[in-house]
Amino acid sequence: MTPRRSHRWILGILIIFLVAAILFAPSYGWKLRDLVSPRENAVAGQTGPNADDPNLVAENDALKAQLATYQTISAELPNDNSHYIRAMVYSRYPFNFKNQILVSAGAQDGVSSGTAVLFQGMLLGRIIQIFPHEAIVQTVLDSGFEMPVRVSSSGYDGLFMGGASPKVGSIAKTAALQTGDVVYAAASGLPYGLPLGTVTATSTSADSLFTEAAIGFPYDMNAVQTVLIAQTP
Q1: At CA 107, angle to CA 135 and CA 63, rounded to 5?
Q2: Which class would CATH give 146-216?
Q3: pLDDT attached to residue 147
Q4: pTM of the full predicted structure?
């Protein structure tokens, strides 16, 4: 038998073996195909039948999304949340409303109406409407948000009024307020002493009977992505 005919016989036997391997033992067929032509199956540094598996691609994308979420909110998570329910804030794009936000916890998660909602230890708002797994939060920037508060370490009484320019009104004119004095909750039904913000400026009310204080917050409402909801006793 000449060398040329011998090579043909060997090539024929290899082809028959490859076809049989693919038909009757797919795993060996894939390995053999990779050995014969590894470059054709390389996808992002991988080879084999799973290189372009849509299930693996979807799983990888899901893991990336989870990692991005945890990295984004890691700085917003408090150390102690044993008495609170953690919830994510749904995106408000393209309607960038600040007076109300929708969160990812509801009645079936233990959320109750009227309970306090916190961000980084600050009172952000309260629950006003509940769904099975979602709830609407009325934030301190809502013009309808009002509650009794106390101001500074001296505990001056006042009425907090939310809105685009939140302030505390009905403060006694004799109150010695200073910029930076803390404003904290003193309303029934909410944890006492929760801070809302700090005094940024003071003025006299329109009727000249009280002192008013403009309030600032140490956070950007647009940047809030996770909150804690107080659990009822």
Answers
A1: 70
A2: mainly beta
A3: 96
A4: 0.66
Q: Return residue ranges of the chain for CATH 2.40.10.340.
A: 73-140+221-230
229 contacts 87 by C-beta, under 8 angstroms? yes
- When computed from its CA atoms, the radius of gyration of the chain, rounded to whole angstroms, is 32
pLDDT tens digits, residue range 136-175? 999 999 999 999 999 998 899 999 999 989 999 999 999 9
What class has domain 73-140+221-230? mainly beta
